[in-house]
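If you are new to this repository, start here. Below is one unmodified record pulled from the training split, so you can see the exact layout before writing a loader.
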Amino acid sequence: PDRAVWRARDDVRTLDLALHGGLRLEGEADVEGADETVLVADAGDPVGAALGAPLTHRRLMSCARATAARERLAARDHTLALAPYAHLFGLIVGGIAPLLAGGRVTAHDMLAPSSALAILEGEGVSTLVAPPATFAGLLEALAQRGRALDAPVLQRCFAGGAALDAALARRWYHETGVLLHRGDVLGADGAL
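And here is the target side for that same chain:
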């Protein structure tokens, strides 16, 4: 189809799928982005977007730039993105922001904890982006193998897609020495 219709309450929008240009990242860190609707926030996405809020390329780029600036992401960074891109947290924090900063992204949506630990320890990962349950699974895998995490490059850990339990964040820090932050997605004006 070349068109789609989006309806929410009294708001009806026609989306032109045939002319939709997509979101390009490489070499375009300063491009503002179009005011073209690119996606509609899902009710289950806990990043503060209004239910059914249409988001434009411009807004996604703004959020990604704000995230990259706030976290001082750079070309030297390697992000392991274990959060699904179907949610704004995974898409922006795990994908768009590190790529805009020129960094490398390794993305997996279903990865065994032992495989994730191998990537963290062997591939120079500086940023880990995942749901809280994934962090809990990684801690369990560390306990089972009986050896501490050996990931000297790891500097940032962001949990999103669900509420972050303070006890989990404390345990993650105790076991790894890296703070686990709630990965809220904020734009330049402080809101999605």
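Two things worth knowing about this chain: The chain has five helices and nine strands. Residues 88 and 173 are 25 Å apart (CA to CA).
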